[in-house]
Each structure stands twice: as structure tokens, then as C-alpha cells.
Amino acid sequence: MSSNKVSIVITCYNDHKYLTTALDNANAQNWDEKEIILVDDGSNTITKKLIEKHISKIDILITQENLGVSAARNRGIEKASGTYILVWDCDDYFERDFISKALKKIDNKKTEIVTCYSRWFASHLKNEKIFKPRGGDLYDALFHNVAMGSALFKKKSWEKVNGYDENMILGFEDWEFYIRLLKDGGHVSVIPEVLFNYRNTPDSRNDKANLRKYDILDYIYLKHADLYKENFPQFVKNCLSEQRKKEKYKHQISKSSEYKIGRFILKPFRLLGILE
């Protein structure tokens, strides 16, 4: 195994619209010591046919029934021969120089994860935004978004923490994984450049995760109860801060003209018992 080899693990589930872009950008990475692993997580027929069409762009193809992104990533990383792992979802892509820049960062023995600034865009919308993960250590990871879900890390670190939690099929599996990676020390290093493109598709995993956000938080908080107890004052501050934000937003909505007009229009229906 080359000490500088990077295994790119791409997970795919019915992503026929974006598969070509993902594979082309993976192959375009300006780092020679790499392999491309595609994990087909139970995709439909049209996606499987496209995978076969692009088989020459894939070094290792793994197919499985639909078990979720955590299981798919774990199967891909198990087969990886690289010292470093770069994971990404099939509908996203990195700029071609991400790996070469990330490896300079991870040379630091204290660095466990390398991420970068991200361009969030939607194919069905014209607007886009730049997201800047904050990086940091375990303390930061417990309460904030320290890295994108697609990032570079060491395979030996993945082995040490037994990979992604395959029970986490609702989302935020990357956040929980990062907590375990940083538990014994180390930090997340951020490349201050937009080198990752996150496609916010309709009915995306991120949107689905937000719908079940509190179920996921319950799971993470209880799984890492020891860590949150050690940092209980900050945990309380963080919870109260989130609550204040929600109440402030709710107050702003209730004072808006649109809300008042809506209440006025719906008032007769409530009086008639049609609406509660």
C-alpha cells in the first residue's frame, strides 16, 4: 500500500442524473496515486445500466441491497487499499485539486479530518450559497458543524473507531462518526477555499434528516452521554441558544403582515369549526 494513496469512495443510490459528473470529477483529481470505488446501494435499473456504461472509470465496483449510506461507505472503505479515504455522495463533487491540497493538511499528525469551504447549489433553483465549516476539535464537534459530510481522513482512524454507525439510517451519520474520530484527540483542518460542490436536490438526504432531526439528536446525545455530561454547561447553553433562535423567528413571523392577513382570512373558518 502506498503511503500517499487515496481511495475515493463514492456511494450511489438512484443517482443516474449525476453519476457521470461524479466519476469524471473523481478521475480528474490531480493526484496519481488514487483508486475509485463505487458502491451501488441498491440502485434502480437505469442507474445500474449507466454504471455499466462507465465501468472503465471505476477501479472497484461493489453492489449491495439498499442498506443506507453508512453501510455503503463501510463496505467501500473495507475494500480500499489507500492510506487515506475520501468519501462523497454521487450527486456532489470536488474540484480537481482537493486531494493534493488536503494531503498537505493531513501531514500534520494532529489532523484527523480535512474539509474545505463548500458551494451549496440546487439544480432546480438559481440561488447558491457558500458554506464555511468551522473545523476544530472534539469540543467543537459536539456542538457545531466542523466538517462537510464528504471529507478526507485516514483509513487507520476509520478502523480504530469501527467505521460509520450503520444504525444511523436517518442521517447525520457523518457528524456522529466525526465525534468518535476526535474523541481521543486530533482536530479538523479546513482548507479556506471552495473546493466542494454540494448539490441540494429535491428530497435530499439532508432534507429528510432535518425532518427527523430530534430523533437523530436523541440518538447521538444518548450514545455519547459521557461526553455531553463532561461538557454539560456548554450543552445547556447550546440548547438554550437554539431555543432562543426559534422563539425569535416565531415572534418575527407572528408580527409579519403576511401572518396577520392569513389569520384574518382563516378566522371565519375557525369560528365555523372547519379549522382548529
Helix content range: 40-55%
What's the overall average pLDDT, rounded? Answer: 90
Would you state the CATH class of the largest domain? Alpha Beta
Q: What is the overall shape?
A: globular
Number of beta strands: 9
- Examine the coordinates and then state which fold CATH places here, giving the name of the CATH topology of the largest domain: Spore Coat Polysaccharide Biosynthesis Protein SpsA, Chain A
Order of helices and strands, N to C? EHEHEHEEHEEHEHHEHHHHH
Summed up:
The protein folds into two domains: 6-230, Spore Coat Polysaccharide Biosynthesis Protein SpsA, Chain A (Alpha-Beta Complex), CATH 3.90.550.10; 235-271. Helices cover 44% and strands 21% of the residues. It contains twelve helices and nine strands.
